[in-house]
Design a protein that fits this description.
The chain is built from 1 helix and 17 strands. By secondary structure, it is mainly beta.
Length: 270
């Protein structure tokens, strides 16, 4: 925890703000640190509404315990979640948390505001997986990985631009070839110009977001290809811009069955 980023101010009485984000306080004297919390109980039936509520509660406890373990004396966290898509009993979701955290050091109290990036989850009948995310930019706001992206004139620009989230829910590292091609007019048109051609490595039980691939309005085909032991798995999906109001517009899921692709809905977050 980098306490230099906090705004220092004198100790004072804490106020509970909101319902879901009610503050947890330290014990006597306010210097012992808050206690860690137990994770929420899994819903009996994995319906989308129940899963979304469960994931939001899980994310809230995750954030609370992270700061409790670091010695926080007060933590206020609220979280929101939505189910992105369902495949059989597998529910893929997105969660985000925000709030504030207080630390004390030699009588001085510091406060840090929390506002986390959205994170993906997988919830199955016997598993809850929160995937750490590595984000790389391949587009209009610059590139950190050697790609130039594809930027449009102002009147043809879409915001947010096209992004792809790759989820590896297996216990082995995977490498995919991610290709995005611009499509001509018509739903059945063959793909044309390639706007992105990337090799993406995804560690076990983690995710990678490739953002800002292109912001030119129109239709695109996203193809993700993986080879393992001489067998090729491929998922492809057509997507248009403008699309979902979030960083990634498309999900690529890598599981025991291979590669699958889904559209992502908009996500309001917290």
């Amino acid at each position: 925890m980098d306490r230099r980023a906090f705004l220092l101010r004198g100790a004072g009485a804490a106020v509970c703000g909101g319902v879901a984000g009610c503050a947890d306080l330290a014990g006597s004297g306010g210097t012992e640190g808050v206690a860690e919390r137990d994770p929420p109980e899994r819903p009996d039936e994995l319906e989308s509404e129940a899963v979304a509520a469960y994931v939001a509660a899980y994310e809230e406890v995750y954030a609370h315990n992270h700061h409790a373990a670091a010695g926080a004396v007060e933590v206020t966290v609220d979280a929101a979640a939505t189910v992105d898509h369902v495949s059989g009993d597998d529910h893929y979701a997105t969660a985000q948390h925000a709030g504030s955290v207080y630390y004390e050091d030699d009588g001085d109290r510091s406060v840090g505001e929390l506002y986390a990036d959205p994170v993906p989850y997988l919830v199955t009948p016997d598993r809850t997986l929160r995937l750490d995310v590595r984000r790389r930019t391949a587009g209009t706001d610059g590139s950190s990985d050697g790609t130039d992206g594809d930027s449009a004139p102002g009147e043809d620009r879409s915001s947010p631009p096209l992004g792809v989230r790759l989820l590896n829910v297996t216990e082995e590292a995977r490498e995919l070839a991610l290709t995005v091609t611009r499509r001509s007019s018509g739903d059945d048109a063959e793909p044309g110009e390639t706007v992105a051609d990337l090799d993406v490595a995804v560690d076990p039980e983690t995710a990678v977001e490739v953002r800002s691939i292109t912001d030119l309005r129109g239709g695109y085909r996203v193809t993700a290809r993986m080879e393992e032991d001489g067998v090729t798995g491929e998922g492809r999906i057509n997507v248009g811009l403008p699309s979902a109001d979030r960083g990634p517009n498309v999900d690529v899921a890598l599981d025991g069955a291979g590669v699958s692709t889904r559209h992502l809905p908009s996500f309001e977050g917290v």
